[in-house]
Design goal:
Layout lengths: L2 E3 L4 E5 L5 H10 L1 H5 L15 H12 L5 E6 L2 E12 L4 E8 L8 H16 L4 E7 L3 H9 L3 E12 L2 E11 H9 L1
């Protein structure tokens, strides 16, 4: 099974079918918090709803199209981070992430996304990474900003959240800029 140590407290791992219960409980306990920005939360009503999703994530990994990883903080599942897929022809990808409210403000997500940047640029030899954040989601925007991403612009009505569309900010990071950012 794929796992990656990020630091002493944080690691990333591919979820397996036996992780469905822990994933469901994590989302269920943070349902109101996560629902504000994630359009899929209401559809995940029981542990079994995660089984086809985990299977899809495992297929994504096995087909060399990136991965979705559970974020483990001090032995407990805290959230998810991953590549939405990899455009190998254009050497680019995008990153998505979420973290339970009880694990906020510990630097967990910044460390996890930074590890995905390393994977994208050093292991996959990609050139561009994108992250989209809700225009009002200031906490989510802090991640790309801290990691050297630059805003490319606003995407109007980019996502439908339950009963309304909302705008997102598109951030990007190029390999050459990341190398300069790391060295500064």
């Amino acid at each position: 099974m794929f796992s990656l140590k990020v630091n002493e407290e944080v690691s990333l791992k591919l979820l397996q079918m036996e992780d469905a219960q822990e994933l469901f409980e994590l989302v269920d306990h943070s349902r109101d918090y996560l629902r504000e920005w994630l359009p899929w939360v209401d559809n995940m009503k029981e542990e079994e709803d995660y089984l086809p999703v985990i299977e899809m994530w495992l297929k994504q990994f096995s087909s060399h199209d990136g991965f979705q990883a559970g974020i483990v903080y001090n032995g407990r599942l805290a959230g998810m981070v991953g590549f939405h897929g990899i455009d190998w022809s254009n050497k680019k990808t995008s990153i998505g992430y979420w973290l339970s409210d009880k694990f906020q403000d510990k630097g967990i997500m910044t460390a996890a996304v930074n590890e995905l940047i390393v994977q994208a640029f050093e292991e996959y030899n990609l050139n561009r990474i994108e992250i989209q954040c809700g225009i009002e989601n200031k906490k989510s925007q802090g991640i790309p900003r801290r990691l050297g991403f630059k805003p490319d612009g606003i995407i109007k009505d980019a996502e439908y959240l339950y009963d309304h569309f909302h705008d997102t900010i598109l951030y990007s990071l190029l390999a050459k800029d990341w190398n300069e950012y790391r060295e500064s």
